[in-house]
Amino acid sequence: MKNEYGNNHARERYRLRRTFYRDQFGKLVAEEGLAKIDPELVRQIDLAAQQMAAENEQLREALRRQKADFDNFRRRTLREKEQLRDAAKEALIATLLPVLDNFERAIESAKTAKDVESVRQGIEMVANQLMGLLEGEGLERVDLADKPFDPTLAEALSVEERTDVPDGQIVEVLRPAYKFKDRVIRPALVKVAKHPSETVPEKK
């Protein structure tokens, strides 16, 4: 249907162009007093007009095809990116399933355990297993205890006046920071030391 419309449109443009050329030659006859225009010249003009109309239609058709190809490429790329994301999530979840199994075992064991220390050790083992898997995927826990405060790695929730440590040193980590492949994905929440302000004695 589109091609038929395009062909009709091209034929209409050709007809209008041909009429325009003939009108211009008609003016030329009236102004110059020419008795006759060379038929060969008219034929060449008609052929040129037809060729131009055909070339215009070919260009429009090529543009339509390129647009359709680009739209298909964009949709395919988005679909492939979504599939890659899903595959990465699926692989990570499959890796974490054994950890989930161990957590469930630890919970069941805690229901009947009489030794609290053994329960704590079991939970620590599962937590270490989980951390090991995440580190294998590129996760890194950042140790900021007793380090100078760095706003790119931490957020200061509170300040504590201290004189036994350097000014601006982190004295307590309330929530650890994590990096994923050298990029900070969660800053730490910390408490920072601050030296007390010196007071100037009043003059009497």
- Give the quaternary arrangement of the chains: single chain
- The strand count comes to 6
**What amount of the residues lies in strands?**
15-25%
User: How much helicity do the residues have?
Assistant: 55-70%
**Rg calculated over all Cα atoms:** 40 Å
Question: Structural class, from helix and strand content?
Answer: alpha+beta
Q: What distance separates the N and C termini?
A: 101 Å
Order of strands across the widest beta sheet? 1-4-5
Poorly predicted runs of 5 or more residues: none
Shape: elongated
Domain module count: 2
Q: Could you give the order of the helices and strands?
A: HHHEEEEEE
Rounded average pLDDT? 82
Strand count, sense and barrel status of the largest sheet are: 3 strands, antiparallel
- Counting DSSP H or I runs of 4 or more residues, the number of helices is 3
Please specify the SSE layout and strand pairing:
Layout: H1 2-32, H2 39-112, H3 116-136, E1 139-142, E2 154-161, E3 170-175, E4 177-180, E5 183-186, E6 188-194
Parallel strand pairs: 2-6
Antiparallel strand pairs: 1-4, 3-6, 4-5
Helix pairs in contact: 1-2, 2-3
Structural features:
single chain; about 200 residues; alpha+beta; Nucleotide Exchange Factor Grpe, Chain A, domain 2; three-stranded antiparallel beta sheet; three-stranded mixed beta sheet; 6 strands; about 15% strand; elongated
